[in-house]
């Protein structure tokens, strides 16, 4: 669709046709389920509000980073309210994550810096959540900061696993670029393992998507559930159990992801 990138007052229909093209929304890995379910319906209105302002797409991405990281680090504090704030912050973060791209597509302002900042935002947020959970599990609060204990260390180890898991995806693009191969299409066939045994294992994990425990939206919801258990029990057992459970889950998630990459067609 041809449009005027300087038009700051398009109709929602005009904006949606350019900023939310079907081929973008239908991407296999890049679109979070919450985006397709409800946040894309909200983000297009947020983008329309942002258009008359002077904020750039990268400026929206910076705002996304601040909201996500600050929200994650609220988890240890304010009792139950800290995780509540974290859940709300992750919703706002993904909304802004939708809007920065929509703003870029309308204004026709694309840059490697925008993609780079987007990746940094997700790396920082999703690594911050398990570290913040570890601090909460060890009894950190605004009133009485505690010593760094074993659960904080476990949270940090989980954060390392989260970063590795994300790097396994991005390193595919690095490897392909360095060997002169075209960009990888974001379709299900590219991620399908070549060996039938691995393909069956991957399908099994589709029914038990444990990797989502380390995605910001889902991780914040788990933190809230654990905080509710803490509040009901009058202790920190819920958060402590969650942190301990995350250790084997991230080992399986990151290890399975690496095997999946190596056994698929993504590196051909």
From TrEMBL:
Transmembrane segments: 60-81, 148-168, 210-229, 241-262
Alphabetized GO MF terms: transferase activity
Keyword flag Calcium: no
This protein's UniProt keywords: Membrane, Transferase, Transmembrane, Transmembrane helix
Protein name, UniProt field: Transferase
């Amino acid at each position: 669709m041809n449009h005027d990138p300087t038009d700051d007052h398009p109709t929602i229909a005009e904006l949606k046709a350019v900023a939310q093209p079907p081929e973008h929304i239908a991407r296999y890995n890049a679109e979070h389920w919450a985006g397709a379910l409800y946040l894309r319906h909200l983000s297009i209105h947020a983008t329309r509000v942002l258009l008359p302002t002077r904020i750039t797409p990268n400026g929206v991405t910076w705002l996304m980073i601040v909201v996500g990281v600050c929200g994650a680090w609220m988890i240890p504090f304010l009792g139950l309210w800290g995780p509540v704030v974290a859940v709300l912050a992750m919703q706002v973060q993904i909304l802004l994550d939708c809007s920065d791209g929509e703003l870029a597509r309308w204004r026709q302002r694309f840059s490697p810096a925008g993609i780079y900042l987007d990746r940094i935002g997700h790396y920082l947020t999703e690594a911050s959540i398990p570290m913040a959970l570890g601090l909460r599990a060890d009894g950190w609060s605004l009133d009485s900061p505690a010593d760094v204990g074993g659960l904080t260390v476990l949270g940090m180890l989980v954060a390392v696993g989260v970063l590795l898991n994300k790097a396994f995806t991005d390193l595919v693009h690095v490897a392909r670029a360095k060997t002169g191969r075209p960009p990888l299409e974001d379709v299900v066939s590219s991620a399908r393992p070549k060996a039938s045994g691995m393909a069956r294992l991957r399908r099994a994990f589709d029914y038990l998507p444990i990797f989502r425990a380390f995605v910001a939206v889902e991780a914040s919801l788990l933190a809230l559930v654990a905080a509710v258990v803490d509040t009901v029990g009058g202790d920190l057992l819920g958060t402590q159990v969650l942190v301990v459970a995350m250790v084997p889950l991230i080992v399986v998630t990151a290890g399975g992801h690496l095997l999946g990459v190596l056994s698929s067609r993504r590196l051909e």
